[in-house]
Queue: 3 jobs
Job 1
Amino acid sequence: MDGITPPYRVNELTPDPRVSFDPKVSGDYVKYAHRLAARGLVNSSVGGMVIRVPHPDYEQGICYAKPQGISLEEVEVEDLVITDIPYGRILAGERATTVGHQMNREILRLRPDVNCVIHLHHDETIAFLAAGYEEFRSFSLTYGFLMQKPAHYLPASINVEEDVAPIKTFIQDTNCIIMRRHGFTVLGRTLSEAYHRTCVLVSEVKRNIIVETLCAVNGKTPEYISDEDLAKMGTYGDKVMYPELIKRA
């Protein structure tokens, strides 16, 4: 990493007998993958999700992922693979991961507080930004409490799935990356939190489209929640939405 030639290749098969699939983690992965698909958020085999779990022999933990060529809608427990985080070598399972897995691993490497990453090619997000809007705004109380940090927008010319270098410049200050012409990537301390943040994000994008459409028809001005209010909501996010996470800290 960081200019040092890694000792392993991405997707190199290096089975580790100390690493095995946890039925609970594997089951949760498939359950939430199918929940995302049931909401209509999955397109073909693109997009993905990773879950980090601790392991005594891997300082940064290990992560569960789906292999390339299988969608979140289709994935089953027997399809999953486990990789390390620094290099992306396959510790359990036999199939290669997607190119986007290096983005997910880099996020986990840089954000030890994050244990789940969800990346989706969301139709409405891509369409809204392609229509000329620079960013979406918040209209709801739930978005600020759940997301807790402002979204970071990337221009279409930057693809952090293929080149992860820019991630280190912004990842500490966001829980959501908006990728023009591409979709979004959402971070969570738990699988549940990442899923909830994904749901509130797609709802907020939908609200933007509805509000902007209605205001264009009736000549009114949208009533946004200010950035200052969103920041204040973020500081109370755990107390309002996740008091259990406070108890664990």
Job 2
Amino acid sequence: MSEVTIDFIVKDPWRMVLVEEGPWEDVSANLSRVQSRLYGCIDAAIDGHLAQQFPESNGAHVTVQLDCYSVPQDEVSMFFKTFSSSVLHLPSYKDALHSSSFVTGFDFQINFA
């Protein structure tokens, strides 16, 4: 797994929060970077890295949250909706989640300020 920067973790319920700040000049490049960060969050939870740092999260349902400040809302909303509705249907992620003892499932949330 490559290194991922998670801006902060919230407990009860468990949230892995990514913060994105704009303005963005190259929307496509930034969406690609955000996608990598989102995959990294999912990987960290499925592979047990979250549970290693926070043992009380072991077996939890986790929300991956993206907080956005001054980013192009329409483009980011469309991207996030597509990503969050399809990622866990990819065979590799579906199988990994099913066999993981570290996390029971994921929700996704996006916020704009």
Job 3
Amino acid sequence: MQAIAVTLAVLGAALFAGAAVLQHREVADLYGQPLPRERVLSLRRLARIARRPGWLAGFGLAGGGTIVHAIALALAPLRVVQPIGVLAVPVAVLLSSLRSRRPPSRSVILGVFLTMAGVAVFVAASVGGSTGNPPPPGSTLPTTLIVGGVVLALATAGLAVGGWLRCVACATAGATAFGLLSALMRVIFQEIAAGTLWYEQPVLGAAASAVVALVVGGWLVQQAYPSGPPEVVVACLTVVDPIVAVLLGALLLGEGSDTPVATWFLLGGAAVAAAVGVLVLARLHPDAVAARAARSNPSRLPEPSRGTAQ
């Protein structure tokens, strides 16, 4: 079952990467590249973007990725499924290279290798650990509120500034919300497996919180797109999301409680290697290099699209 879950998680990562590239491209086409500093991407502007075919295609990919990811969470623990999402970064690099018809540089290939190697070791070390149990009564709501407070603080800070800080803060806030979403989905599956009926409070409460986390996380990711290239958003999502989900899986569900200390050190080293790979990709991705070149030479900036909302 865990092998099936890993396969589904890889497929989900590819779908999420495609969604990020498509949706970011639509925002860039509408507002120009590099994108202008905005205090907030209003609902009116989001509605305008959401009517574009590319954005809708990305939304469809994201929806498919969410379904596949949910099935994977029903089959395996969070610490097996969540880290695989990091593969969305090299997939995004590959899609960008295909779109631009330029092969990735050796530095980008190094980043891809570090990311994939770190994820492979993490998953291999995670398989076979304890799958966890339903959370103790009354523990889900306080945990959700605490994580929600972190999301609110990051979102408030991000929307108060502009540029890269806004991109990173909003993407990190969205990733934290998505990490909570994954943990809540796993809580639901564990509750049902333990005999809790779908209409009972533990399941309904977790489901309602999961819907809120999905909507808030999606909105924050859209807020991050106008302030930075897709690799920065994808990097934040694929590093922060699994960390939050795995920590919540350990705290709420007891996943990995039988894991030896040496294995935890191995998991930490693998996570660091994956994070280094993500950082290399985030800095040397072709879009990031082009954005830095444009900022250093403003005369090369393209004119905003004629449909830009004022």
